[in-house]
Design a protein that fits this description.
The complex is a heterodimer of chains A (89) and B (351). Chain A is mainly α. Helix content of chain A is 93%, strand content 0%. The interface between A and B is medium-sized, with 22 and 25 residues.
């Protein structure tokens, strides 16, 4: 009956949001881990006495990746939340 | 967790990943546009195009994974590509239909289809070129028909049943005059409407439409006619059913109501319409004897309960005649709520 369908929909929308959020967090973490890995690499290279230009370049790349990841994650969460909210209304 | 759930979760995750990287895709599109406007021979332009193609690959959808509509959903968010991609989707749906087994049945996730339909409706509220309107309308109607059916198809079993009932009762097969309108009945509401029409048509055949001899005597055609007209009333649709039988036995209903203690003989007689609507009361039947067809008095009451639970209603309007007539022509009005139907999308050409 239609009532059942409506309640199933109410359950499935949060479930989808949950899956989307988990996926988003996973992608965020994967990229963040890459940025952190790069940070370790930079520290290692510094200890080996690698040229400062390369070290600074890699550090910039590390911060850029992390910043991009943060922006993408924030935007993703906002878009997903907005979509879920609209469907629940 | 069953396979369908796993597939559904996988498709949600895929769509989420695409959504996550969407700004990058847009950025690449923008860079490509800048280079395209500078020089099409630029090597960098080709490289950016290749990157874009790779990113587009993320959006390739597996037909067997019910993802054909996912891509169209994405397109709705990117209106600039709508015409090209919807056309492609429609071609894919046709292919999918061809491959999908007997009787062209398509297995789709109803949630996705509903969310899709809502998105397309939102989209139609914004201005779009005529050619796009045509394709969007086609896509909408295609999706609508996935889990909804025209009224005439929903009640086809009932019509068959009315015909065999006519044979059983020794009456002529009724002529069905059905004004189908543009409504499509939602799958969840189909069995309810089927039940309702089963009761209404059976009552018409059993109580209303006379036997062949009686009809000929009255100067009517051998077979009765049952008319079904569909009209819109705000967010409701009114399905009105009437037959050319003898009408409703108002005096008999009134007599039975007195016998059952619903009315007192000494009380002033209620209006014929009020009496007519007693057929929806629990345990009320005017049939002379209880048969397989009718006479148990639970049918019309159950019909009313079905509809009212779903937000609709059912009642009887009487036609011409006086308050004292024994029989009165009548129309059964079945008002169905918005959750019962979908309407084919039509654009106003003058807009």
């Amino acid at each position: 009956m239609p009532e059942n369908t409506a309640s199933e929909e109410m359950v499935s929308v949060p479930r989808r949001f949950l899956f989307e959020a988990i996926t988003g967090i996973s992608v965020f973490l994967i990229i963040a881990v890459a940025a952190v890995g790069l940070s370790f690499l930079v520290t290692l290279l510094e200890n080996f006495g690698v040229d400062n230009v390369i070290v600074i370049g890699l550090k910039c790349a590390e911060y850029l990746i992390f910043l991009f990841d943060l922006v993408l994650f924030g935007r993703f969460l906002w878009v997903t939340f907005k979509k879920t909210w609209k469907e629940l209304k | 967790m069953n396979t369908a759930n796993i597939k559904s979760n996988t498709s949600i995750a895929k769509a989420a990943v695409v959504e996550y990287f969407k700004p990058i895709l847009r950025l690449v599109n923008f860079i490509k546009y800048i280079f395209a406007t500078q020089s099409r021979d630029n090597i960098l332009f080709d490289k950016v195009s290749n990157i874009e193609k790779n990113l587009e690959m993320r959006r390739v959808v597996d037909l067997e994974n019910q993802e054909i509509f996912g891509r169209l959903e994405d397109v709705i968010l990117r209106q600039e590509l709508i015409l090209k991609t919807i056309k492609k989707e429609l071609a894919e749906v046709d292919t999918f239909n061809d491959k999908s087994g007997p009787e062209g049945m398509v297995s789709l996730d109803p949630e996705r289809v509903s969310s899709w339909l809502a998105s397309i409706k939102d989209l139609t509220e914004s201005g779009m070129p005529e050619e796009v309107k045509g394709v969007v309308s086609e896509a909408y109607n295609l999706l609508t028909s996935v889990d909804a059916q025209p009224l005439s198809e929903v009640i086809s079993d009932v019509i068959e049943s009315a015909n065999s009932l006519a044979d059983q009762l020794g009456k002529g097969k009724p002529v069905m005059d059905i004004d189908n309108s543009d409504i499509l009945i939602e799958s969840e509401a189909q069995s309810t409407l089927n039940n309702i029409f089963m009761h209404v048509f059976r009552n018409a055949m059993d109580h209303g439409i006379e036997g062949i001899d009686e009809r000929i005597e009255k100067g009517k055609s051998e077979s009765g006619t049952i008319q079904l007209h569909v009209t819109r009333e705000g967010e409701f649709y009114n399905l009105s059913v009437k037959d050319d039988g003898r009408g409703m036995a108002i005096s008999r209903i009134y007599k039975m109501a007195i016998e059952k203690g619903i009315y007192q003989d000494s009380d002033p007689k209620p209006s014929a319409t009020e009496i007519a609507n007693l057929i929806f009361s629990s345990g009320f039947s005017t049939a002379d004897k209880v048969t397989d067809v009718s006479g148990r008095g639970v049918g019309m009451n159950a019909v009313k309960d079905f509809l009212e639970e779903a937000g609709g209603s059912i009642d009887v309007n009487l036609g011409d005649g006086s308050e004292d007539d024994d029989f009165r022509p009548f129309t059964t009005n079945i008002k169905i709520p918005a959750s019962f139907y979908k309407v084919a999308l039509k654009f106003d050409k003058t807009a």
